[in-house]
Amino acid sequence: MAAATKSATKIRLQPLGERIVVQREESETTTAGGIVLPDSAKEKPARGTVVALGTGKLLDDGSRADFQLATGDRVLFSSYAGETVEVDDAEYLLMREDDVLAVIE
After folding, report:
1. Residues paired with residue 52 on neighbouring β-strands, in sequence order
2. Which among 13, 18, 22, 88 has most CB atoms closer than 10 A?
C-alpha cells in the first residue's frame, strides 16, 4: 500500500505514515556580482524535490489519507522543517507533508 518506495535516485529510505523524503536543491556558489561564497556563508535553500512518500496519514476510521504531493514535485518548505539524514553520501530531509508550504510549477 506504499505510495512510492523508491525514486529514480534509488534511495534506500522509506518514510512512514504522512512523512516524505525531500532532496534539497544545491545553494548558489556565487553572488549576482560574481563573488564566490564559501560553504560557511551559504544559506541552505528552502526548496527541493520530493523523492519518496510514506503510506499516508492514518485517519480516525483506520483508512489512509491520500497525499497532495507526488514523487518528483518541486516544493517550497520552511528553512527549519524536517530532519536531515544522510544515506549513501547524499543528504535528504525527512519531513511531514504539512511542513511543505507550496509546490513549485
Report:
1. 21
2. 22
Global pTM value: 0.72
CATH of 19-26+43-104, one of 3.30.70.20, 2.30.33.40, 1.10.10.10, 3.50.50.60: 2.30.33.40
Q: What angle do CA 5, 75, 57 make, to 5 degrees?
A: 50
| pLDDT tens, per residue, the chain with 105 residues | 444 444 445 657 889 999 999 998 876 666 667 676 665 555 667 899 999 999 988 899 989 999 999 999 999 998 888 899 988 888 899 999 999 999 998
Cβ atoms of 74 and 48 closer than 8 Å:
yes
The C-alpha atoms of residue 96 and residue 100 are separated, in whole angstroms, by 8
Residue with cell 563573488: 35
